[in-house]
Amino acid sequence: MSHHLLTVDSLNRESVDHLLRVAARMEPIAQRRQVTRVLEGAVLGNLFFEASTRTRVSFNAAFCRLGGSVCDTTGFTFSSMAKGESLYDTSRVMSGYCDAIVMRHPDQGSVAEFAAATNVPVINGGDGPGEHPSQALLDLYTIDKEFQRLGKSLSGAHILLTGDLKYGRTVHSLIKLLSLYDPLRITLVSPPGLEMPSKLIDLVASRGHRIEQRDSLASDFADLDVVYTTRIQKERFTDEMNESFQGLSDDFMVNRDFLDHRCSQSTIVMHPLPRDSRPGANDLNLDLNGDPRLAIFRQTDNGIPMRMAIFATLLNVDKLIEQDLRPVRWYVPSQIGTLDR
Ligand code: ASP
Ligand code: CP
User: For ligand 1, atom 7, which residue shows the shortest CA distance?
Assistant: First the structure.
């Protein structure tokens, strides 16, 4: 694994399996049963130039749970990029202050450009329609945990990726990550014009996976293990696309009816979130709330151990965790959510 995490291309099967193992060791800390101080004194720079809830807060919380502290800036307005400062200068400056940097930026390739100016580990928290490698890692960690619970194996699994596969950076990283594993069956369903880039389809097919494109969800998915649905990334649309796009039709809607009638009792539903809950959006219907097949909040919870694993590995403290554990002393509720677990 390189000392940055900019794309899943820098990972191989061995480094991914290592991160999955380290994330599993982080669970007692993520679940607030134990504490560690292995990153005591270390400082994270969290730079977010695009909207975020999960990635920004969970990277922040993961670093704090390892004993480090966090400095951040949010949006261009409150950084000196608003005064015309380059990515290069910003990177060099931040490297003098921080031991690791997470960055999200609207331009594809910008986080790599930023990382080229520093030796401090940089993690891509999402670069435009490019990649979102930590999301893909936590998605894979979720699939692995859910499959263990259900007694399933990833080998030969059938995974459906649906929604905006053109601009959705999470699926770009996830499909490449999945392609490192034993042959899978991957089905892609997206509205016209929002298909998965062909170079990613070719790459995955060249690694021996069975990949199929369908133009709607109105068919049989009885052997489906995972449906991974995504939000339409309207913020990346051209004006022309914005005018012509009418919203998601019923043919692309993941809801209880789809799950009950076209899938099976053991199909799990994932989404990187946020799901768009405004009228007409419907990338993931609210009628699945409370259904145990809905794994979206287990998925967000898994962001903490996986992001802790990423920091611990990049900063070389992954082998120190066990030596440094203590029980927590504050009150922790026995279950975090109410409806969805
Ligand atoms: N939160 C994810 C991302 O930033 C997915 C999304 O926004 O739809 O890529
Ligand atoms: N999944 C994800 O990246 O969420 P945010 O955009 O809220 O960070």
Answer: 274
